[in-house]
Amino acid sequence: MTQVISRVFESEKRARGVVDRLRFEGIPTSAMRVVTARAGESSKDIAARLGKFDVDAGAAKAYASHISDGRAAVVVHATYRPLGAAKLTRSVLDRNDPIDMRGATEETYVPDRPSHAPSILDTHPHFLTSRVDDRRIPSGGPVSHGLGPKLLLKHRPRTSAIRGGKHMSRMFWPMPLLKKGRDARSAIRGGKHMSRGFWPQKLLSTKQRRLSVIPGGSLPLSRALGFPAVMTRR
């Protein structure tokens, strides 16, 4: 069973301060609600909204008149997390001067509701890390905010690790070692081939491949055997 504990406080600021303290004590944020009046909302509407949060019908009616006057209610669904959650919640609420509701049923029991958490670690997804102190660190952010300089910089495309885009090769070699890619058939300027220095004929040819080195395409071995000795795969 879940114990629903509710109290009314003089202002929304006081109510939210109580919720911050309960969160610091280990009560899950999802188990707490601060109920205030909405624009154009009547006392009947406020009571109906409190009823959806499992507040006793009589207490909801009594709370509604106070909430419509600018006060705020805190509703806590105390379960088994943390151990002794109901006693802890009651102690924190009563220490912060709630309004005396004169006999209204401010605590009741309801059946446990099913959990629809996407993970079995819904309340402790980072079980190897310490809990953030909500009082000293009100909001999250990068660690670099506390150190001063940025630890992460936006990526910018660069051609060199040296500031200004220079290359280390210019210190010992007059020509650049890196060039923009260009389609070329030879590494020698002008498209020449090294083979022309020791062989009069071309070693590379762009002509269509032939099945025979004999002019005219004769295949003497195939003719002697009576069947093709060279075949093309299809």
Walk me through this protein's architecture.
With about 230 residues, the protein is an alpha+beta fold. Helix 1 packs antiparallel against helix 4 and helix 2 crosses helix 3. The radius of gyration is 41 Å and the shape is elongated. It is about 25% helix and about 10% strand. The protein starts with a strand and ends in a 9-residue tail after the last helix. The model has no long low-confidence stretch (mean pLDDT about 80).
- N-end to C-end Cα span: 77 Å
The count of helical stretches stands at: 6
The backbone outline, from C-alpha atoms, is: elongated
Would you report the number of β strands? 4
What is the residue-mean pLDDT, rounded to a whole number? 82
Percent range of helical residues: 10-25%
Rounded to an integer, what's the Rg over CA atoms?
41 Å
Strand order of the largest sheet: 2-3-1-4
Which strand-content bin applies to the residues? Answer: 5-15%
Name the poorly predicted regions: none
Structural class: alpha+beta
SSE string, helices as H and strands as E: EHEHHEHEHH
Main beta sheet strand tally, sense and closure? 4 strands, antiparallel
Features:
four-stranded antiparallel sheet; 234 residues; alpha+beta; 24% helix; single chain; elongated
Quick synopsis:
By secondary structure, the chain is an alpha+beta fold. The protein has helices spanning 12-25, 43-52, 57-67, 85-95, 144-147, 220-225, and strands spanning 2-9, 32-35, 72-78, 107-110.
